[in-house]
Design brief:
5-stranded parallel sheet; alpha/beta
């Protein structure tokens, strides 16, 4: 019996030896003592994150930012600044305007640019993305065209003649990109272009559909232009103040309202659910579901420091800029409610969800087509409740399910909200783990697929067979 065991052990050792030789690894310690296995020396790109390509490890993402004239970005922040050609730096970056109203909710483009301009403390090792001046060393290329602000600034509706300024900016930035050898090299696949407003870059967006787009959702994009495989879903910039002193000894009991919604109840597309919910939720003493409309001028911005605020021309009445509730009423309503309702609007998402998050009000999401930021890292079911349109429109069902959630479970979700709300803060100077830092992490996650597409496109001799397969 002992002899058979010995023979078996010898055969096993022989097989391990021959296998390791065949595959080029003759360190047998790794089979029996994993902690003693040889570690990579760090001399090769695959072990230290060197070389181009970004990826999930290997230090911060190296981003080259195109040096576009101010008229493409901060020149739109105030009147008379469009012709200023002074180079933008971290020191002379204009603060986000204090009277920008609802334009703030789509200002992701500004905060991404600001994060690359920042040269302060913290060290590159703590940041997800750093600016590089040599494009040859870049993992990704950022295009600082404020396409959302351009839509909101140049013309107040789709047929306004002033929209021609928006169109011309798109034509001009596309010309700059097409003349860049780095755009030509990748077909734009490793370029990052913010398009957070659903109408941003609307004239020529199909010309940049290979790039990594920063979007709010996919409600107004055909899948061949924007999709979850290549693009990044970014949060809206919240328009209510963050609840920084939410320290009630009993937050469940102190929030007397069960469910809160204040906003526009007549919407298009999937948003027709709002009018139906208004009827279903009437008559509950602890449910607030109110119609309210506010223009951008009624919302106070909270980002620019006192004494250093930039005047922005007030927008005309514009339904595309209406969020549906005054800031002070919604701040109080969200902070005094256990749950905050987020039904779809004209598109699957809205700023309301992120206002609820920073108010620590458990989001109740009713949208069959919503996609959420950072979802490869954050599990929204830990702090949000989801209903399909069909479930939400079943009389009494949604309210009944919310009442069944025990206090202990609600407290757990509330604590989780407080813990993750920092990931939805846009700020300057930027901080580790804030909204822009998380967005750059998502870009970093998208780059391996972008690089795969670039490398395959260089060697294909015929139209891609993969796209034509059945």
């Amino acid at each position: 019996m002992v002899g058979k065991a010995t023979v078996s052990m010898l055969i096993l050792a022989f097989l391990l030896l021959t296998t390791s030789v065949f595959f080029g690894n003759n360190d047998l310690r790794s089979y029996f003592y994993p902690s003693m296995s040889l570690q990579p020396s760090g001399r090769f790109p695959c072990s230290n994150g060197g070389g181009r390509g970004g990826g999930r490890g290997g230090g911060p993402l190296r981003v080259y930012m195109y040096d576009l004239p101010r008229r493409f970005h901060v020149g739109m922040l105030r009147r008379g600044a469009r012709n200023d050609e002074t180079p933008v730096t971290g020191e002379n970056l204009p603060p986000w305007p204090s009277n920008s109203g609802l334009r703030k909710q789509h200002s992701v483009e500004y905060w991404m640019m600001a994060s690359l301009l920042y040269e302060g403390g913290g060290g590159n090792e703590t940041r997800e993305a750093v600016r590089v001046w040599d494009p040859e060393s870049a993992d990704a290329f950022f295009v600082p065209f404020f396409s959302s602000l351009s839509f909101n600034t140049h013309g107040h509706n789709m047929t306004d003649p002033d929209t021609e300024f928006d169109r011309q900016l798109q034509i001009d930035v596309l010309k700059i990109l097409r003349e860049s050898k780095y755009w030509q090299r990748s077909g734009g696949r490793d370029h990052v272009i913010p398009m957070h407003h659903p109408n941003a870059f609307r004239f020529l967006r199909e010309q940049v559909n290979a790039s990594i787009l920063i979007v709010a959702d996919f409600g107004r994009y055909p899948k061949e232009i924007s999709n979850l495989r290549k693009d990044v879903v970014a949060p809206y910039v919240h328009v209510v103040d963050s609840f920084t002193d939410d320290n009630s000894p009993d937050p469940y009991e102190s929030r007397m309202t069960l469910l809160f919604f204040r906003g526009r109840t007549v919407r298009k597309d999937e948003g027709i659910v709002r009018a139906k919910l208004a009827k279903l939720l009437a008559g509950y003493d602890d449910v607030i579901y109110e119609e309210s409309v506010a223009s951008g001028a009624n919302i106070k911005a909270a980002f620019a420091p006192p004494g250093n605020k930039v005047a922005l021309p007030l927008p005309k009445q514009n339904p595309c800029l209406e969020i549906g509730y005054p800031q002070n009423q919604s701040t109080q309503g969200m902070r005094s409610s256990k749950f905050c309702l987020h039904p779809a609007g004209d598109t699957p998402s809205s700023c309301r969800l992120f206002d609820a998050i920073v108010s620590h009000c458990i989001p109740v999401i009713v949208s069959d087509q919503i996609e959420l930021p950072y979802e490869d890292e954050i599990d929204y079911t830990q702090f949000s409740i989801f209903f399909s349109d069909e479930e939400a429109l079943e009389p009494g069902y949604m309210v009944e399910q919310l009442r069944k959630i025990p206090k202990e479970r609600w407290i757990e979700m509330w604590r989780h909200l407080k813990h993750i709300s920092c990931h939805y803060e846009f700020q300057y100077p930027p901080k580790k783990g804030d909204a822009v830092d998380m967005i750059w992490r998502e870009v970093k996650h998208k780059l391996p697929r972008a690089n795969l597409d670039v490398h395959r496109s260089r060697r294909l001799k015929v139209p891609d067979w993969w796209d034509r397969r059945r």
